[in-house]
Write a structure and sequence with these properties.
alpha+beta
């Protein structure tokens, strides 16, 4: 395929990816929260699941409801204080926080798409971490 054909098809490739992501994702209303399931592997290899709430004033809140840290604990990976601080530093680069009870959260008035992207990237960063060395 020539370079001009590749460049010409890139918008179609992005459209196809966007369509696939939309069709493969689910949203389920649970009280005031929306459960989002994306076809991206989490730290257990399952689909990525998290919860989103849009508050008055259009601020957006994201949480994993403690899932990632519970999963790590279930796998026998303990997060000591020094290790936890390194993990917090990593997710802060996305504007994300880890609460004292182990929830990975993001509260923002930023654009929804930008906040969603940053939150998903933070959750996926747990997949790429070698928790034995952090």
């Amino acid at each position: 395929m020539s370079a001009s054909n590749v460049a010409f098809n890139i918008p179609a490739l992005l459209d196809d990816y966007t369509s696939w992501l939309r069709e493969s994702s689910t949203v389920e209303r649970i009280g005031e929260w929306n459960k989002i399931t994306l076809p991206l592997p989490d730290c257990s290899g399952d689909d990525l699941v998290f919860y989103v709430r849009i508050d008055r004033g259009n601020s957006v809140a994201f949480t994993d409801d403690g899932y990632i840290f519970a999963t790590l604990e279930h796998k026998g990976i303990s997060i000591a204080e020094k290790r936890l601080e390194r993990v917090r530093c990593l997710v802060r680069s996305y504007g994300v926080n880890i609460t004292n009870n182990g929830e990975v959260t993001l509260d923002t008035e930023d654009s929804y798409a930008n906040a969603l992207n940053r939150y998903v990237q933070a959750l996926l960063s747990f997949n790429s971490m070698n928790l034995d060395v952090i």
